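Check this.
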Amino acid sequence: MRLSPALILLPLLLLAPGAAEARLPPLAGQPPVASPPYRESWRYTCDVEQRLAGGTVTLTRLFTEEGKLDGGDFMRWTAAGHDPQKTQRPLEVELSYIWDIARQPAIDDRAIDLKLRVGIDVDLPEVALLHIKRPFPVQPHGIIGSTALSTQIFPYGAHDVTNGHGELPLGDLLAYAQGYDRLDWTLIRPSDRLGGDRELARGTLDVTALRQAVAALPALGTALAAKTPDPKARCERVLWPATPDY
């Protein structure tokens, strides 16, 4: 008699230690298999913060429970009025960066991530475009148009299509915005065969606030270095997730 592959495979699964529990669903009337526990470990986190006119910038350095350096430094800047429970509409910006101080003693503006979060009242397309515009003056006629630095904006998912996110290297934006304190931006639904581009939202980006955040980093780095020679004495001991969400 020739056995089916399913009948041959079942005894092998039962012989493997823990394999049956991992692969077979619980029988009727039995409690479900518990999920593995959420893993955390103790760390020391050292922070320095500076409040600026346009927002707040924070530097963080992480140490193991034994007091050894753990990973790189974490930089975060949030705009004034930031509410972690609610995205500013129609556009919220944030700066973040993780770097290894041993290999990257100088901070590269282009490696700092400008996070863009949009929230509007209509559905976003699968890919929207955010244009950051710079006036195009021509003498003696004045401003006759504009150029644009663009990046893609994606909705968070099928369950949340009125909110989206994108990214842009901060160094690219600062180079593009040289000579300007503020730049206009426009969120666009790109054209398709049925029509032209459609404007979804518009606003103004405060470039000065972003420059202030970058200018504050050297002094914050010095303050953080002075705080971290003895992290167990001067830093906070916290439970740190195994896979933190940066």
User: Anything to note?
Assistant: Confidence is low (pLDDT under 50) at residues 1-26. Helices lie at 5-15, 19-23, 170-176, 207-227, 231-234. The chain has one domain: 40-241. The longest helix spans residues 207-227.
